[in-house]
Amino acid sequence: MNQIDIKRDKAFINGLETRLEQEGPFASWDLFQMNYEAALTTMSPSFDGLKALEYLPQMEFMDHQLSSAKQVLEDMNGRGILADEVGLGKTIEAGLILKEYMLRGLVKKALIIVPASLVNQWAKELNEKFYIPAVTFRKSHPWDQYDVIITSIDTAKRSPHREQILEQDYDFLLVDEAHKLKNHKTKNYAFVKSIKKKYCLLLTATPVQNRLVEIFNLVSILKPGHLGDYDTFLKQYGKDRKAIGQDGYLKQLIQKVMIRNTRKTAKFNDIKRNIETVWIDFSEEGDNVYSQLQNTTETLPAFSKITLLRELCSSREACYLSLKKMMEDDEKEEWIRPITEQIEQLPQHTKAAKVVDLINQANGEKVIIFTEYRATQFYLQWYLKENGITSVPYRGGFNKGKKDWMKQLFENHAQVLIATEAGGEGINLQFCNHMINYDLPWNPMRLEQRIGRIHRYGQENDVHIYNLAIRGTVEEHIMTLLYEKINLFEEVIGNLDSILAELDINDIESKIETIFSESSSAGEAKIKLDNLSTVIKMKHDEGIQEDEQYGN
Amino acid sequence: MAIKDLHHFLESYFTAHHCSILHNQDGMLTVQLTEEMDKALMNRPFYWHYIKKMGHPGDPKQLTLITDPEKRDGKHEWIHFGSPRLHQILNHLHANETYTKLFERLDTNEKTALFPWLIANIKISYQGKQKKDEMVSIGLHLVNGTMKVNMMEELEHKSMQNSISDYCYTIAPIIKLQSGFKRIENVLEDYVQNQSHEWAETSLKTMEEEINLLRHFYKGKSDEKEIKKEMDEIKKRYTPYIHFEVINGGLFYLVDQTPE
User: Fold this and answer.
1) Residue B32 maps to a domain
2) Which of A6-20, A226-240, B189-203 has the least mean pLDDT?
3) Max alpha carbon distance in chain A (Å)?
4) Chain B contacts of A225, Cβ < 8 Å?
5) Are residues B233 and B182 in the same domain?
6) Crossing angle of the two packed helices B6-16 and B84-96, in degrees rounded to 10
7) What's the pLDDT score for residue A513?
8) What is the dotted CATH code of the domain comprising A271-279+347-542?
9) Span B119-148, pLDDT tens digits
10) Cβ pair A16:B162 closer than 8 A
């Protein structure tokens, strides 16, 4: 082969001459030797291997994390999609890869783009776990003067940051929650694609949410052309999602740029999930109101009835607020007023009382409660306080600082964290191993997201999950017909995404809502829901998804 | 000669910097820093600025380091190969111990000649898809042109000092430093060019593959700027090269081993 380009060291000999002319200062023999020893110690004598491990003696990595890091470094040449399931430690894999590159002197300048709510958490993990001096972006930290900067895409893409970032030559670019870049027509996509980079990691737990072309777009940031050109790809696979499983060639191509570990492949089963359904009966008064609502012949706007029923199962307050609102908008006051009056008379919710029991059983250990409704969140906070239990709220709408603060309060002071759905994404609560699902989401993937908050990398104890449901209500149907029948908690969840895609169900939640709102009786809804579950279960059992979708 | 015993290494480091060792046992090391070392390691420029302004001599800190992870107590710093503190110390070495002029120490009553050597410790990095390093410690006799490798290992057990011993005298170099260094570089260049370069070949091959994919991807499109950006990134990532970095070096005056 041709001669290889050699970059020589021009500074040394001139520097030495100057020192000799100036008669020093000169290194002593001891320190001169020590500098040499230090250089021998820090250099990397082989192309392969994870040198970083010697430098992180306090970390215990899981096997799949080590092999993912090696794969990115050695086979993917530093550009890849890390697509592990939630809770398997994608951050850890990414940190390890970045550390290795920094130790080998291959990365100096890095830009890390993460959701705004996770900026501080990333900074903390990189600094504390990996000794990577990463800073979060502030005005006093200009883009060109700090080597490792963490920021959110909203900050980064705003002028003047945008222009300054695009001027930099990054050695390493990381985008967390990269599925947000699935559409190549968005400004975010165009922005990320135009950042100059050498190595690049995209992190997402859901590389394909709806259409295969999403993965095409992600790959085009890393390796344009790896999956062919856009039009051909779209024609061949675009609308389909099962194609990855079926088309061996495509699967192979994708595996060259994407790593996906699942709980199953990652041998994550050491930590058990104890899942328990807790059945509760309405109080007699509660049952009355529920029946009235259910059997009403009033015509309500689509979905309203089922929403009210769900809310009543959650708390008086949630249902009451919705009814109040309907009174303002509609001319149904005559019908609504007596119901609200009855609700006002209802005793404490039987579910809330059960929650107190469960918390007391936890013997002072931390408990996280998830509810779908903010009114319920407020109610529970008040009710727990009445019962001498300390709690803090957590919502998606909190700003970054408040989220951090609440998490810290929970970790150090309060026994219970009460979170609404939107607060679920990204927060890591592995120090807690009890979870109460006060009401079940209708999309099982969201339940998995919730569980992933505590059943994740770093959790050292078995996790206990309690799912509350009220007998004889819509909750019972969801619990028995959706969750239990298809064994969602244990088995199907990992494949649910692809099963639903095959069944052409875009959004299981609205599918279920439709079932309830279009059925004229509870019995009819039950039958339809049962049918839905049967189909899902059949698909699963058929084992169509036998081979891992994208596994390694 | 890589660091094997971190505790011993640190002890030597602080001793060489004239810090007194206050406590030294069981994987725990406490040193009294000098003003110079406090400034170098303790990150408190404002303190020193302030105290000097006030006309005080200043009060250098003590530093306790735990080298044995079993002895961690939560109060003192655990120092290990990844810790920022060691990183700081190694950087401090790297920044300050680059150049030297040393004389072999002799205990003699006879007039003895010391011959000049240019010695350089050079890290050669091979960078393709991945990167690896190799260290070469090389010396050039500046009078007769003899070249030797493994110089540091050879000198490891000799005593060297910054001043010349009694009864010794130095022979002036015939080969100039600049041309001597060029000789060293040429020898290293021959050495690396004569190796087989599989690493570089596979890197070039991957580069070619990715460039072809890229061309296919942008076929029929005219976004020149974007294509160039992607192309540059591929080239930057895969173009193989070799880098010489001198870790440290200097002028060494040594007794001639060759019999006259």
Assistant:
1) yes
2) A226-240
3) 102
4) 210, 212-218
5) no
6) 50
7) 82
8) 3.40.50.300
9) 999 999 999 999 999 999 999 999 999 999
10) no
Task: Among B36, B65, B96, give the residue marking a domain's end.
Answer: B96
Both tokens assigned to A379: 């109610």
What is the ipTM for the molecules in this complex? 0.95
How many domains would you assign to chain B? 3
Q: Best of B14, B132, B188, B224 to disrupt the A interface by mutation (most A CBs within 10 Å)? A: B132
State the distance between the two ends of chain A, measured CA to CA, in whole angstroms: 35
Q: Do A224 and B213 touch (CB under 8 A)?
A: yes
Contact B160 A29 (CB under 8 A): yes
| Cβ-based neighbours of A538, under 8 Å, separated by 6 or more | none
Per-residue pLDDT at B180: 96
B1 lies in some domain: no
**Residues of chain A contacting residue B226, judged by C-beta atoms under 8 Å apart:** 193-194
Among the partner-chain residues A15, A20, A55, the one whose CB lies closest to the CB of B251 is A20
When the pLDDT of each residue in chain B is averaged and rounded to a whole number, the result is 92
Q: Say whether both B142 and B251 belong to one domain.
A: yes
> Which pLDDT tens digit goes with each residue over A190-237?
999 999 999 999 998 877 766 788 888 999 999 988 888 888 888 877
A32 close contact with B: CB closer than 8 A: yes
Please name the residue of chain A whose CA is at the shortest distance from the CA of residue B209: A226
In A80-139, the residues whose Cβ lies within 8 Å of chain B are 104-106, 131, 133
Contact A7 B161 (CB under 8 A): no
> How many angstroms separate the CA of residue B172 from the nearest CA in chain A?
14
Helix axes A284-295, A304-314, angle to 10 degrees: 170
Residue carrying structure tokens 């050699």: A6
- At residue A552 the predicted structure's pLDDT band, cuts being 50, 70 and 90, is very low
In this complex, do A31 and B13 lie within 8 Å of one another by their Cβ atoms?
yes
- The residue from B96, B122, B149 where one domain ends is B96
CA distances from A143 to A117, A140, A148, A166, A531 (A): 20, 9, 9, 10, 56
Same domain? For B138 and B249 the reply is yes
Does the beta-carbon distance from A24 to B101 stay under 8 Å?
yes
**CB contact at 8 A, B183 and B191:** no
Q: Which of A213-217, A272-276, A442-446 has the highest mean pLDDT?
A: A213-217
Domain A60-259 classified CATH 3.40.50.12580? no
CA distance B167 to chain A (A): 21
The order of strands in the sheet holding A416-420 is: A273-280, A463-470, A434-437, A367-371, A416-420, A391-394
Q: Determine, for residues B2 and A41 on separate chains, whether the beta-carbon distance falls below 8 Å.
A: yes
Domains of chain A by residue range: 11-42, 60-259, 271-279+347-542, 282-345
